UniProtKB/TrEMBL annotation:
<protein>
    <recommendedName>
        <fullName>tRNA (adenine(37)-N6)-methyltransferase</fullName>
    </recommendedName>
</protein>
<dbReference type="GO" id="GO:0008168">
    <property type="term" value="F:methyltransferase activity"/>
</dbReference>
<keyword id="KW-0819">tRNA processing</keyword>
<keyword id="KW-0808">Transferase</keyword>
<feature type="domain" description="TsaA-like">
    <location>
        <begin position="84"/>
        <end position="222"/>
    </location>
</feature>
<feature type="compositionally biased region" description="Basic and acidic residues">
    <location>
        <begin position="220"/>
        <end position="230"/>
    </location>
</feature>
<comment type="similarity">
    <text>Belongs to the tRNA methyltransferase O family.</text>
</comment>
<feature type="region of interest" description="Disordered">
    <location>
        <begin position="48"/>
        <end position="77"/>
    </location>
</feature>
<dbReference type="Pfam" id="PF01980">
    <property type="entry name" value="TrmO_N"/>
</dbReference>
<dbReference type="InterPro" id="IPR036414">
    <property type="entry name" value="YaeB_N_sf"/>
</dbReference>
<keyword id="KW-0175">Coiled coil</keyword>
<dbReference type="GO" id="GO:0008033">
    <property type="term" value="P:tRNA processing"/>
</dbReference>
<dbReference type="InterPro" id="IPR023370">
    <property type="entry name" value="TrmO-like_N"/>
</dbReference>
<keyword id="KW-0489">Methyltransferase</keyword>
<dbReference type="GO" id="GO:0032259">
    <property type="term" value="P:methylation"/>
</dbReference>
<keyword id="KW-0949">S-adenosyl-L-methionine</keyword>
<feature type="region of interest" description="Disordered">
    <location>
        <begin position="218"/>
        <end position="242"/>
    </location>
</feature>
Amino acid sequence: MSPRCDCCCEHIQKLNQQVSVMRKEIKNLRQMLDSAVRAHRKQMTSVQAAVSKMGLSEDKRDQTPSSPSSSSPQAALEQGNIQTVPIGYISSCFSVKNGTPRQPTICGPSRAELRIQQSVFNNPDHALVGLEQYSHVWIIFLFHKNGHLSYKAKVKPPRLNGQRVGVYSTRSPHRPNALGLTLAKLDKIEGDTIHLSDIDMIAGTPVLDIKPYIPEYDSPDTRMSMDSEPHGSNTDQPNSASALLNEETNVIIKDERTEEGVESVLSEDKFETDHSSSGNAPFSLPNDLRSVLEEVKTFVTQDNIYQVSCESGYQVSDPPKTGPERPCYGEEAYTTIAGWIREAPVASLDVRFTPHAERQLAEFLPTHLSGPSESDRPRFKFLRSPEEAAAAIRGVLSADPRSVYRRTRCGDRLFFFTLDTADITCWFGQGFAEVLQVRPVERHIASV
Ligand SMILES: C[S@@+](CC[C@H](N)C(=O)[O-])C[C@H]1O[C@@H](n2cnc3c(N)ncnc32)[C@H](O)[C@@H]1O
C-alpha cells in the first residue's frame, strides 16, 4: 500500500469531520421528527376522543346501517350516545354523601320519594300503572354529586380497607358513565309519586329509569328453580341427587343474598314461601329424597356452611384476596361473588347510643303525629318514628361509613352525618361506634 501524502491525510480528516457533523445533524433531525410524530399522534388521539364524544366517529359513521344524518337522534342512539333526561329526582332522608349507606340493604328504613316529571310524560301517573304489583324496583340513576368526573381503572373500595380492585368489580360511584343501580323496596305508589325504602341515594339524585325487579329474570338462582319445577315428572331432569344438590344450593344462595340467618332460609316454610311469593308452584321433592334433604340441611346449617369442599357439591367460601371458586357442577347452578363482599377486611361495628343521645332521639315526633302543643318538637320527614331512626342509624354506622383515610389516619375524630331531619354526631372506637348527639337540623324545623 502506497504511503499517503500529507495533503491526502488532511483531506480525509476534513471529510471525517464533515461526516461527523452530518451524523449529528441527522441525529437532531431524527429527534425532531420523532417528537413531531409524537405530538401529531397525541393531537390525533384527542381529536378522535372529541369526535367520538360528539358521536361523529368516522369508523362508526361508516358502520351505521341506515346512514341517518349523523346528527340525528337515531344515529346518536345507534352509536351509543344518548341525551339522558331524568324522569324525576329523589327526595330522600340522606342529604349528603357522608353517612349515606353504601348499599341499600345496609339500612332498611332508609326512605325516599320519587315523583315522575310531567315534562317526561303528559300523565306521569299513567307510566306507573301496574308497578304497584311489584315489591321491589331497580332504580337507575346518576351519581350527580361525584364532584370531579375523574375515574380510574382501579379503585379502593372502603370495605377493602385500601386494597385496589378493578372498577368494574365494584359498585364505586366513580366510573366512566356515572350510573348507579339500586334495588329499592317499593312501599307504595300515590299518583305520580313512588315511595321507596332500602335506598342508598342522596336527595336530588337524578333518576334515569325504573324497572320492576323480577326474580325470575334477574336472579340466577330463581331461574334455576323455575327450570327445576317439573322435576317430579320431567324425563329430562338431571339425576335426582344432583337435582337435589342444585336445589339446595339455590337455598344457600338465597341466604347469602338476603343475608338472613341460615336457619330461617333453609326452613321448609321459607323455601316454599319464596317460590309461592314469586308466583311459582311450590317446589316439591320426591318423597325418597326428603331424608337426604334433611341430611343436607343438617350439614349446611353447621357453622362451616361456606367451608364445605367442592367434592360435596357446595360452594367453597372465598377467602378475601382470592378469586371466587367456580361452581363444581352446572355453571348456572348458583351465583358466585367476590369473597371480600362477604368477608370484608373491615369488620362490622357494634353501635351504641349514649343516654343523652337516646333522649334527644326520643324527642323527635313520629311523622304521622302532630299537634299544636307539640309543634316545637322536631319531626322526621321520611322516617316514621324514633325507633325507625335508631334502626337506620345503627344500619349506617355498623357498616363503618368512614373513608379508608378517616379510618386509618384520623380514627379518633368525631364523625357527623345527617339522617332525615337529624344531625348525628358520633365517634368510633375499637369495634364500635357510639352516637353522642342527635340534634334537629335547623332548616327542617323551620320548614315543617
Ligand atoms: C357505593 S354507591 C352504590 C350505589 C348503587 N347501589 C350502585 O351499586 O350503583 C352508594 C354511595 O354513593 C354515594 N351517592 C349516593 N347518591 C349519590 C349521588 N347522587 N351522587 C354521588 N354520590 C352518591 C353515597 O355516598 C352512597 O354511599
